[in-house]
Every structure is written in structure tokens, then in C-alpha cells.
Amino acid sequence: MTSPDTLSDAEQDQSAGSTETVYMEAGRGGIVRKEVTPDVIRGNSHLEALFARVNSLLGSASAADKEFFPHVPETLEQMGLNADDVQRLVLKFLLQKGSATGREISQQIKIPFGITFPLLKDWKNEQLVTYRSAGEMGDYVFAITESGRDRGRKFQEECSYYGAAPVGLPEYLKAMELQSIAGLEATEADLQEAFSDLLISEEMFEKLGPAINSGRGMFLFGEPGNGKTSIAERITRCFGDDVWIPRALGIDGDIIRLFDPGVHDEVRSETSGSSLFDLSGVDPRWIKIRRPTIVAGGELTMNELEVTQNPVTKICEAPLQLKSNCGTLVIDDFGRQTMPVDVLLNRWIVPLEKRYDFLNLPSGKKIQVPFDQLIIFSTNLEPKDLVDGAFLRRIPYKINVPNPSREHFRQLFNIMGPKLGLIMDDAAVEYLIEKHYIEAGRPFRNCQPRDLLLQIKNYCAYRGIPRRVTPEGFDFAVENYFSMM
To answer: From CA 406, how far away is CA 409, in angstroms rounded?
Structure first.
């Protein structure tokens, strides 16, 4: 092991022109890897960029311990797969497409070409596939044989999935642990940035901050139209970073699709899929997404909270709470679901208390998975009228989203007007407040400035007149908007 004294000498040698690129030093955490840029490449921007890229891919032990990164595997054993698992995916893919190059097959099932290509050559010897023609850079176009078709049909009857190779449950559990929101803390500055496009009072920030940092859950309740859903949707932004999730999970033969483009926002890198050689160093079975925010409203059913299997394709779909791990799950319009409230509450009691959930697989096996998200119940009903004390105890924060003050209400008009391309008039806004709110005894709602201004904008566009806010315009908008309210 190199002593600190020797290290100092090494650094002096480096400054004198040594071409050594890596040395090791002893630290509290053991051996720490140090990278030094060689003099021979200094001044060459292309070589320096390549050198920095290689070092970033190699990483350091201390960085790897602190955050999760799905490094590209070198063997099937590292992926938790065997040749039969890969064969199932490849033959089902070729059964549909007929033929493809080795690299196209590799890209389809998200397994590195260096692992897939030797297997394809083995299956060529077994007469499951054959060479149709030569491809680029030592590749071939592989076509499925009649024997391969027979085997592929049998595989397809078991399950028609032939997408990304699945990730095992142990790897998924480790990834969720390293990316958990439970250990993250949101500061006042984080909240200010996350809610920068909303007008939120300081009093509301004081309530939201501790509730978000609890990592457990909260009730947002209050009158409709005051922004409960908008607040809930922005809470995940407070944590500010991205997470890695598997495209699919493989558990004892069942394949569960986890990545859902409908609710997950993929973070694309500059190198992903941009060239023949992928320099990202990422296991392609994983995908980087924004920390998820999943909203389920009155349409929520119990099936969406369990692993469901398509009876025809035999492909399983992950439940909403699994898709929202490391993010936020919003139960909007709580109390208005078709299922009884007690049924929904009973489903959440154990996960909210223990922070893990149990899922039943089609095979009959029950598995334990993390319940690692901030769950938010948003309702315009009184929480104590919906749930009992045992459940309320498990949701420690109950936050009322109140009606806006007069000043707050006026500010919303000044914010929304320019965004809609309208010329604002403070006197017209005061006319609206006095005549149609104070005199009418009508309460303010946060959604109303936007809705009334949209009415004026559409009216001006129809009449072909300047888009200016006037008392007459507000009279027209109020008559339409509040005709049944």
C-alpha cells in the first residue's frame, strides 16, 4: 500500500511530466482511486474529453456506495439470467419479425451485443436460427428456422412478451433502497423552486415542508378549485433528481412491466441510442426517469393496486404503487371512487405503517416490495367524515388548502393575464371583485382567475376585438361561468 509520503512524491513526478494516470491512496474508507490526466494528452481537447469520459465510466468505490447506477453487465450471471431466458425472448422476437441483425436483436431485448452474439451462434449450430446474410462489423442477419418457429410458438403460448430482458427482484430492491425518498430532505429553497409556477402563501409552505420531509403521507383537503391537485403534482419536484427503474421485472417466470410511458417521464441522455457503440456504460434493461408523480382519481379501481395479468398475452402489469416508488402517489378526489372507502383504506393500512407492501403474483407466490413513496390523499370532503381514527393516525399531516385572500386573488389575475396574452386593467379586476364577489357573497377560488380570463380571451377572439380585460368582459364571463353555480 502506498504511504502518504510516497503519494506526495507521485504527485511531484506527475507535475514533472510523468505519464502515470492512476494511483491509489489510503483513506478512511480504504483504498481510494485517484485519476490524473497524463501530460501527453493535455492540450488535445478530443483526447482529454475521451479520457474524462473513461474515468467517469470507471467511477470510484466511494461514489458507487452512495448512489445507484446500473452498470452494463459483462456476463449473463451478472444479469441474473441464463441462456434459456434469452432464447425465449429472441425466438419470440424473430417469430414476429422473421429476421434481424445481431445488433437489432440485442437492442430489442436490451442485452449487450457481446453477450447476445455468442448465443446466436450457438443457436445457429442447434438450427434454431440461420445466417441469412452478412452484416456490418462482423455481424450477421439471423433468420428463424422452422425448428425455431416451433419452439418460439411454444414460448409465446406461455407469455408473448419479447421486450427488454427482465431485472431480478434482488437488484430492484437494492436500487429502491439506494434511491429512496425516505432519507431525502426538502428545504425551503427546494419548495420555492418546485412551486415557482404557483402562487403559494408562506403559511402553506410552513405546513407543506415538514409534511413532505416526513416521507409518509398527507391529506390535502378543502373546497374544489383551490389547487389541491396542482400542489400534489409539484411535491415530487422538491426532491429534484432522477431515478433508475427496470423496464421489466422477472420473478420466478412471471414478467412484470414496470416502465409505463403513460406515467413515467424518460430522461434521455445524449449517448443513448445515438451511435453503433453505446458509451453510456448503462445496463440497457434500466431506464432513467424523473421521480414519478402518479395521479389516480375517481376512476381508481382495486385491480390497479394489484399485479394484473393479461389473460391472452400472459404479460403482467405493475400496480400503481410499484410504479410510483421513489416518487409521489396522489389519490385524487378521495372518497369518490367506485369502491367503498373502507376497502381502499384497508389496502393502505399496512403499507403506510410498515413502508412495504405484499403483492400476489399470478403464479400464486406472494412477494414483499418497497412502499417507498409519498402518498397524498386529495379531497374536497372532510377527512374525519371519510375515515376512522386508526387510519388518520397513519397519515400524520392533514393540511387544509384554504380559499385565497383578496390580495392573493388579485395577484392571480395579474399572473394569469399576461400568460393568456390579455391586456390587464386593475380597475376592471376591482370591479369584478366588488360587484360579483363581495356584493354577491361569493367565495374566492384559486382556479377562477384563470377560468374567467379564458372566457374573456375566447370572447375577444370571436368578436375580433383587442384582447383587453374590461368590466363588460367580466360581466359576460361571470354570467356564463356562474350560471349554474
So the answer is: 5
Burial of 74 (0-12, 13-18, 19+ CB in 10 A): exposed
- Please, which contacts does 29-32 make with residues 24 or more away whose CB atoms are closer than 8 Å? 29/61, 29/62, 30/61, 31/1, 31/61, 32/60, 32/61, 32/62
Rg (C-alpha) for the chain, rounded Å, is 29
Q: Which residues contact 477 (CB under 8 A, 6 or more apart)?
A: 452, 453, 455, 456, 459
CA-closest candidate to residue 375, choices 477, 424, 426, 305: 305
Exposure letters 449-461 (e unless 16+ CB within 10 A, then b): bbebbebbbebbe
Q: Please state, as a whole number, how many other Cβ atoms lie within 10 Å of the Cβ of residue 477.
A: 23
Between strands 129-134 and 140-144, the pairing is antiparallel
Cβ neighbours of residue 427 closer than 8 Å, sequence gap 6 or more: 471
User: Helices H, strands E: what count in the chain?
Assistant: 20, 19
| Side chain identity, residue 62 | S
DSSP 110-164: T--HHHHHHHHHHHHHTTSEEEEEE-STT-EEEEE-HHHHHHHHHHHHH----SS
b/e map of 356-393 (b: 16 or more CB within 10 Å)?
A: ebebebeeeeebebbbbbbbbbbbbeebeebbeeebee
- Burial class from Cβ neighbours inside 10 Å (0-12, 13-18, 19+) for residue 418 reads exposed
Whole-number pLDDT of residue 476: 94
- 69 Cβ partners below 8 Å, 6+ apart? 59, 244, 282
Query: What's the whole-model pTM score?
Result: 0.76
Within 10 angstroms of residue 29's Cβ, the number of other Cβ atoms is: 10
Residue whose entry in the numeric block shows the C-alpha cell 416502465: 259
Percent of the chain exceeding pLDDT 70 equals 84
- 136, burial (CB in 10 Å: exposed 0-12, middle 13-18, buried 19+): exposed
Taking the CB of residue 174, how many other CB atoms lie within 10 A of it? 11
C-alpha span between 444 and 437 (Å, rounded): 7
CA distances to 131, 335, 391 from 340, rounded to whole Å, are 59, 8, 15
pLDDT single digits (tens) 44-103: 555 555 555 555 554 444 444 457 899 999 999 999 999 999 999 999 999 999 999 999
- Give kind and range of the element (H or E) at residue 231: helix 228-234
Question: What's the pLDDT tens digit per position in 351-395?
Answer: 888 889 999 998 889 999 999 988 888 888 777 777 777 777 778
